[in-house]
Amino acid sequence: MVDELLRRGIVRTWNSPLGDLDGWIAFRASGGGLASNSEKGYDLSWNDGERVQVKGRLVDRADRRLQPFSAFRSWAFDIAVFVLSCVRTYDIIWARERIHFEPEQFARRVEHANPRQCSSDASRPRAGTCRMLALDSPDEPG
After folding, report:
1. Of 84, 81, 105, 103, which Cα lies nearest the Cα of 93?
2. Nearest alpha-carbon partner for 63 in 34, 38, 84, 80
3. What is the pLDDT of residues 19-48, one digit of tens each?
4. Could you tell me whether strands 108-109 and 92-99 are parallel, antiparallel, or unpaired per DSSP bridges?
5. Is 137 within a domain?
6. How confident is the model at residue 117 (pLDDT cuts 50, 70, 90)?
7. Which of 54, 71, 78, 142 could pair with 50 in a Cys bridge, judged by C-beta atoms 3.0 to 4.6 Å apart?
8. What pTM was computed for the model?
9. What is the rounded distance in angstroms from the CA atom of residue 116 to the CA atom of residue 5?
10. Inter-residue contact 83 to 70 (CB < 8 Å)
């Protein structure tokens, strides 16, 4: 599978494809350009110059526990995009965009590595600047 994703330019490494796939989806949904693989702090730049950090997570729809996204090791971005996908099909459950300072406010510190981590409920919409991207699944769970 990864061979075909590499051939199509959807993923760029042999790592787990989720991060590259979510970055590619956010790029396709919003435009701009993908950052180089070695870029620290962001995954793509939108046409207006905003730097975007994409965080993806695979979850079982039946599991209602909080699910952590990978930790932020840098705050050198303008927008964070969170993508929650089904572990069995990789279908997108929801995707959200948040302004850079909001994830930093609700992220928790990860003791062993010192970065900060957000869980699936923390990136959910609430009053403020969060908006859904145009790639949400219509059957989003409550």
Report:
1. 84
2. 84
3. 888 988 888 888 889 898 778 889 999 988
4. unpaired
5. no
6. low
7. 78
8. 0.74
9. 30
10. no
Residue owning tokens 């994409």: 54
Per-residue confidence band for 6, with pLDDT thresholds at 50, 70 and 90:
confident
Q: Is residue 100 part of a domain?
A: yes
Q: Is residue 139 part of a domain?
A: no
Question: Are the CB atoms for 103 and 130 separated by under 8 Å?
Answer: no
What's the pLDDT tens digit per position in 53-68? 999 999 888 887 777 8
Say how many domains are in the chain. Answer: 1
Integer angstrom CA distances of residue 131 from 41, 65, 82, 120? 21, 23, 11, 15
Report the pLDDT averaged over residues 4-14: 83
Q: In angstroms, what CA-CA distances link 58 with 33, 37, 42, 109, 129?
A: 24, 21, 20, 21, 24
The CATH number for 70's domain is 3.40.210.10
Task: State what percent of residues in the chain have pLDDT above 70.
Answer: 77
Does residue 142 lie in a domain region?
no
Residue 85 domain boundaries: 2-132
The pair of three-digit structure tokens given for residue 124, joined into one six-digit string: 């959910």
